[in-house]
Design goal:
The complex is a heterodimer of chains A (588) and B (376). Chain A is α/β, with parallel strands linked by helices and 588 residues long. Chain A has helices at residues 67-88, 115-134, 136-156, 164-205, 213-216, 223-240, 244-249, 252-260, 265-279, 299-309, 317-337, 341-356, 359-365, 376-391, 406-414, 419-439, 457-463, 467-473, 543-551, 562-565; strands spanning 43-44, 53-56, 93-101, 104-111, 446-448, 481-483, 485-488, 491-499, 513-516, 532-535, 555-557, 570-575, 580-586. In chain A, helix 2 packs across helix 4 (164-205). The longest helix of chain A has 42 residues, at 164-205. Residues 1-7 of chain A have low confidence and may be disordered. Chain B contains 13 helices and 13 strands. The termini of chain B are far apart.
Chain lengths: 588, 376
């Protein structure tokens, strides 16, 4: 065909009909595992899963997944992690796999169990990781620019003006981008964890506490610390403009009307809108297509500002950061003073390498470009499509589209004949989701066979699967004192508030001690009002550990059972240096 | 020519082309001497002498020991210790010992020092100072040796130093055979130095070729080269010879000859000397001129080690001890003051301060100690 000359004839079809089969060879039907997965897609539990461990991931997905979220989970913690581990060549693990209990996510790992594969992976790991660590700023800058340019593209689209073909193409683009974003996530994560874990290992080898390492790497500003700073500033502005009343006393849904009725209200709301344009492109949880970003529903931001207003003094971010940095530097100096000769030399080099490619920083920073944002283009395009399908009478409301699985949606967009049957299933699926949402808090932290140790050091540091954690889960660690990882130093005593989902966060009262499964970026504002933090899961690199240090409150993570052993109203004493939590008699 | 003659060569007979036999360090010194520069006199034992020396049984024992990468640093250290002990314990064959003895007698005669001659015994890797890899600091150097028997012993020690864990790992990394096939040994008159140090014909930090840098201390140059003191520091404008900066170092120690030990050792510097610059401005400018001449002869920037003999009239007492291409900066870098040199600084950040491989490689460490990959 000559280029540039459009063909006016009908396309010629050479039919495949003669070759259509449902088997590859007689007697062989293609299994699930032959889909483009390294190790396997999201599945429900099967009996065979009893032989392995499965950790409830309430850290990232506390409330369960609607059907459309499951494709996003597939992209992220399943496919993304598997492809990332494969390409980077992490020696002990092929990434993570997911199972669902009802609608709730459990994570398992795939150990590499043959010697040859470990060696082959180690070889390519060294080749892959070394140049990236040597020039991390440029490398991450390149990835961040790629992500940002995608957001610029998707955010600029006027979805309502699109014809159906354009809109459907946008849905597909958004899904494709989501998958790409998660590959970037795991590629960078595996590269950086190697650097971090090497420093951690070295620290312990030369007689330092490994738990100090993330403290050595603290103090670098992230997008989220800037967000918090902005929220505090907006709280101060609310005082100046005398619009604190609605923020303190109204439910978020009616705050806007009440504020705009006040003299300074429009000014404040305008400034709040400016804030949301920059900082509001974030959802409450990861891969949850059903959760709106702040810019769509600003309730979480309004709640945070309201809770900050209960603290009259405000929060001096500059002073807190200066202090955190001074403390970090003092800890580094103390560590260096205890070392000499080649130990000191290695420490300095490891520190320099980790300052240049800092996992403790990136682990927080990347969320605004990936975890909390990557699904927003899919959500927006899906909702627009849902609205049109509602107008056409195929769905009864736009959000119904979240109750279709991605393959179902793709199929029915090709062949509309399937709509009635699909639409009929949606009410039952909604009920199923709601039922499991309520059952979430009672689900076990771990299912399957609880191991003595976990070979994957990344699971240990990110999810806190230490030997102690595993022993506690086995029920051999019953005591009035919980033990965990000493994540941020200090001692605090106070009343516990047990929270199992970020959506309950508004129940936390100033001065309480937060007890939860684990925290993510969305919990960050609450650290401005609590006295201490205790988590079931987590290691040195978890969100709660990092943010607690920035806010200067004690924190113990990886206790395994805190949310079960502690009830709201219990008096507890948190020792963030020892990593212990004592539970006293209930006050209420 | 007898094998012994082929393997022990007086400095006066060494030329640049002998680098594959005696190592570039000795080859350059020979070439300098032939060109009329003042260098310490001496002789070299060739790298191939090693081949003719170790008995076959010892060689295969060594090769067995080093055939596989060690599973962990402790094992690597044990293996290298065994290899070193094995090499050091092996006496030199009579023909080689005799040849060294004869060369030493000739050197005593040429210098006119007789039995009071003190020498430096330095290993000189034949691959050393190559365009890309710098072996600097990897192998043994022994200063202040007097007796011929002691010289023989330290030649063995130089060869044994080719089996430190670091050196073995270096060869493995660079795809070289694990045994020290590549070490020659240089024996040179030790200049009784009043002051000694290094001249860089470009600014080693910025790569600026408009500036030259001199670093020096009282006594032997060892204290400067090994980085054990913060030396006196001068920056000189190449074009004008003007001294742009002068910084007195925190010179709390110096390298001196200890007659009791018969060695050069690091000792506290007498308080009177610590704050006194160890060179006059004239000396600094002279050293820079000489280094610039050397650079012009070699065609690429150089770092030049020199020593000023105690009591000798200036400038007659200035000896060039060794010189080598400046490896921190690409040789092609244009000779102009350049902030342009920045990217190169990024590419090889620690090359000057850390000529050897970094002590901590996060990837290797993670593979070995975190992921616990066997054999890594």
């Amino acid at each position: 065909m000559r280029l540039g000359v459009p063909s006016t004839e009908h396309p010629r079809i050479v039919p495949v009909d003669d070759y259509v089969r449902d088997e590859l060879y007689p007697g062989y039907k293609q299994a699930f595992g032959s889909q483009p997965f390294v190790a396997g897609p999201v599945r429900p539990f099967g009996k065979a899963d009893n032989s392995r461990y499965w950790l409830r991931d309430s850290l990232h997905f506390s409330e369960g997944m609607v059907p459309a979220s499951i494709a996003l989970l597939d992209d992220a913690q399943t496919w993304g992690a598997q492809l990332g581990a494969e390409i980077v060549g992490v020696p002990p693990t092929r990434g993570s796999v997911n199972r669902l209990a009802g609608t709730h996510v459990y994570i398992g790992t795939i150990d590499v169990d043959t010697e040859w594969q470990v060696q082959a992976r180690a070889a390519r790991f060294a080749e892959y990781v070394t140049p990236i660590l040597a020039d991390f700023d440029r490398y991450w800058g390149m990835r961040a620019a790629e992500l940002q340019s995608a957001y610029d593209h998707f955010d600029a689209l006027d979805l309502t003006a699109m014809d159906p073909g354009q809109l459907w193409a946008t849905v597909k683009d958004a899904y494709a981008f989501h998958r790409r974003a998660w590959f970037i996530h795991f590629e960078v994560m595996y590269v950086l964890t190697a650097n971090y874990l090497a420093f951690y290992g070295l620290a312990e080898e030369i007689g330092l506490e490994g738990s100090l390492v993330s403290a050595f790497l603290s103090g670098r500003q992230t997008f989220y610390s800037k967000t918090d700073e902005e929220l505090w500033r907006l709280a101060a502005r609310a005082r100046e403009l005398q619009v604190t009343g609605p923020l303190l006393h109204e439910p978020p849904a009616s705050v806007r009307t009440k504020i705009e009725a006040l003299p300074g209200g429009r000014t404040w709301w305008h400034e709040f809108g400016e804030f949301l344009r920059t900082y509001g492109q974030r959802t409450e949880e990861t891969c949850r297509i059903d959760t709106p970003p702040w810019i769509e529903d600003p309730s979480p931001a309004l709640y945070a500002i309201g809770s900050f207003l209960t603290r009259p003094a405000g929060f001096d971010f500059h002073a807190a950061r200066q202090q955190a940095i001074a403390e970090r530097d003092a800890q580094i100096d103390a560590a260096r003073r205890s070392l000499s000769g080649s130990d000191l030399e290695r420490f300095d080099q490891a520190l320099a390498s980790n300052q240049a490619a800092n996992f403790a920083w990136w682990n927080e920073e990347h969320n605004y470009l990936i975890d909390r944002r990557a699904a927003i283009p899919v959500r927006r395009a899906s909702l627009e499509l849902g609205a049109r399908l509602t107008d056409e009478g195929r769905l009864s409301q736009p959000e119904d589209i979240f109750f279709l699985f991605k393959p179902e949606l793709y199929a029915v967009m090709e062949d509309a004949a399937g709509w009635p049957e699909l639409a009929a299933m949606i009410p039952d699926r909604r009920a199923y989701f709601e039922e499991w949402r309520h059952r979430g808090p009672e689900l076990p932290t771990m299912l399957g066979t609880i191991p003595d140790t976990v070979p994957d050091p990344i699971m240990i540091e990110v999810f806190g699967l230490s030997g102690h954690f595993l022993r506690t889960l086995k029920g051999t660690g019953q005591a009035a004192e919980l033990r965990g990882f000493p994540a941020a130093k200090g001692v605090a005593e106070g009343v516990a508030r047990v929270i199992t989902s970020v959506t309950e966060i508004s129940r936390v009262q100033p001065g309480e001690i937060l007890v939860c499964g684990g925290t993510t970026t969305e919990w960050t504002p609450v650290f401005g009002i609590i006295k201490a933090c205790v988590c079931d899961t987590g290691g040195s690199l978890t969100h709660a550990a990092i943010v607690s240090r920035e806010y200067g409150i004690p924190c113990v993570v990886g206790t395994a059972t805190a949310t079960q052993a502690i009830k709201t109203g219990d008096r507890v004493r948190v020792d963030g240096r020892q990593g212990t939590v004592q539970v006293f008699a209930s006050e209420g | 020519m007898s094998p012994a003659d082929a393997h022990v060569i007086d400095l006066g007979d060494i030329r640049a082309a002998d680098a594959p036999r005696v190592g570039p360090k000795m080859a350059r010194l020979g070439q300098l001497a032939a060109g009329g520069w003042r260098v310490p006199d001496g002789y070299a034992v060739t790298a191939r002498a090693l081949d003719g020396w170790l008995p076959a049984g010892r060689r295969s024992e060594l090769e067995r020991l080093l055939a596989e990468p060690a599973p962990d640093p402790a094992a690597a250290a044990r293996r290298s210790e065994r290899a070193r002990a094995l090499v050091e314990a092996q006496p030199l064959p009579a023909w080689l010992a005799d040849a060294v003895g004869a060369a030493h007698d000739r050197l005593r005669a040429r210098t006119g020092l007789g039995a009071s001659l003190r020498v430096a015994v330095r290993s000189s890797a034949v691959t050393e100072d190559g365009a890309r890899a710098s072996f600097a600091g990897q192998f043994g150097t022994y200063l202040g040796i007097g007796e011929p028997a002691d010289v023989l012993h330290h030649i063995r020690k130089c060869w044994a130093s080719g089996y430190t864990a670091g050196a073995v790992a270096y060869r493995r990394r660079n795809g070289l055979p694990p045994h020290a096939h590549d070490l020659a040994v240089g024996v040179m008159q030790l200049v009784d130095a009043r002051s000694a140090g290094v001249t860089f014909t470009l600014d080693p930090v910025t790569g600026d070729r408009g500036r030259m840098v001199v670093e020096a201390n009282w006594g032997f140059g060892e204290s400067v080269v090994s980085g054990q003191v913060t030396p006196d520091h001068w920056v000189v404008e190449r074009a004008s010879g003007r001294i742009l900066e002068r910084r007195a170092g925190a010179k709390d120690a110096w390298s001196v000859f200890d007659p009791e030990a018969g060695r050069v050792v690091l000792r506290p510097l007498p308080a009177g000397l610590a704050r006194t610059p160890c060179l006059s401005d004239d000396e600094v400018r002279y050293l820079c001129r000489k280094a610039a001449e050397l650079e012009a002869a070699e065609g690429v920037p150089q770092d030049v080690e020199w020593a000023i003999a105690r009591g000798a009239p200036f400038p007659g007492g200035v000896f060039i001890v060794q010189h080598r291409p400046e490896t921190t900066w690409p040789a092609a870098e244009p000779a102009e003051p350049a902030a342009k040199a920045e990217p190169a600084a990024k590419a090889e950040p620690a090359a000057k301060a850390e000529p050897a491989a970094p002590a901590f490689d996060p990837v290797r460490y993670a593979l070995r100690n975190v992921f616990k990959v066997p054999g890594r």
